[in-house]
Amino acid sequence: MTPPRSYLLISPCKDEAKFLRRTLESVAAQSVLPARWVVVDDGSIDETPAILEEYARRLPYLHILHRKNRGARRVGPGVIDAFYAGLETVRLEDFDYLCKLDMDLDLPVRYFELLMRRMESDPRIGTTSGKPWFIHPTSGALVPELCGDEMSVGMTKFYRVACFKEIGGFVRQVMWDGIDCHRARLLGWIAESVDSEPLRFIHLRPMGTSQKGIWTGRVRHGFGQYYMGTSPLYFSAVMVYRLPAYPAVVGSVAMLWGYLSSWLKGLPRYDDLEFRRFLRSYQHACLRLGKRAATARVNAEQARVWHARHPAPRSG
Predict the structure, then answer these.
(1) Whole-angstrom Cα distance, residue 262 to residue 173?
(2) Among 18, 77, 154, 219, which lies 20 to 30 A Cα-Cα from 176?
């Protein structure tokens, strides 16, 4: 019997005319096509609406939701607000998998097929993705973005619908794409991204660059780490590790400023004490054991939580 392979794509976008066609074409070329793809045009003022309508006439699974222009392109809460506007147009129960997909990506042809195969092979995998690569602005070489194996990446969050529901969906704040994976792990699900050649995709707008520049994007990331509840010790270690990454030194300084300035202002944090305790315990374990070993240990420890919520069906 063939396992179910019904997946839903939801794509918030605004003023993506520069990259849009490459994403549309790469999804249209997938070996397994989506059951439905809802693209939420969040008030674009460039050619985005016209391009979307052109493709909607060609692709029967593509549906466009146009929203009023709410001002400048907004990441974090603005993107998730648009995502939920798209989600409200469907019955999530009609699908087996859900993906929040950005519109500045070029995906390999078997991308979604291979992600579903992984999840079919292990029922505890709740969210997964491939790895993003980008074209270096100076050398022109294709280089990997820094992203841990313990997270599905924000631009292609591929979820088992059951897991997405259990974690309560996405938080409407900057660090939504970190909180979701840690919440999944807390509940015994496995969150991952896979460094496999057939799952590597091109990110046409490098992560953390922001529409206002790299400094703004990295400062925002620092605030997001503060909001999520990341341990100061762990965050300091990450900053040192990231020093050589593009843009060298500047990126780490910007993230550190985002974290420290948020702390000095006493900005609110994610209001879930159990989650923050779990997060810091995991992060400190990463410092002691290394991230791979710490993640494996936590996944093993949290297996009992998952099995308690998902008892195996009785035979006979």
Answers:
(1) 14
(2) 18
Cα radius of gyration (the chain): 19
Report the candidate in 91, 272, 119, 283 with the shortest Cα–Cα distance to residue 191.
Answer: 119
Pairing of strands 200-203, 105-106: antiparallel
Burial call 208-242: b when 16+ CB within 10 Å, e when fewer? bbbeeebbbbbbbbbbbbbbbbbbeebbeebbeeb
Got the DSSP string for 146-178?
P--TTS--TTEEEEEHHHHHHTTS--SSTTHHH
Q: How far apart are CA 260 and CA 226, in angstroms?
A: 8
Q: How far apart, in whole angstroms, are the C-alpha atoms of residue 182 and residue 150?
A: 9
Residues of the chain with CATH 3.90.550.10: 7-203
Using a cut of 0.85, tell me whether the model's pTM lies above it: yes
Are 267 and 150 contacting, i.e. CB atoms less than 8 angstroms apart? no
| CATH homologous superfamily of 7-203 | Spore Coat Polysaccharide Biosynthesis Protein SpsA; Chain A (3.90.550.10)
Strands 7-13 and 36-41: parallel
DSSP 8-state secondary structure symbol assigned to residue 255: H
Quickly state the pLDDT bin for 248 (edges 50, 70, 90). Answer: confident
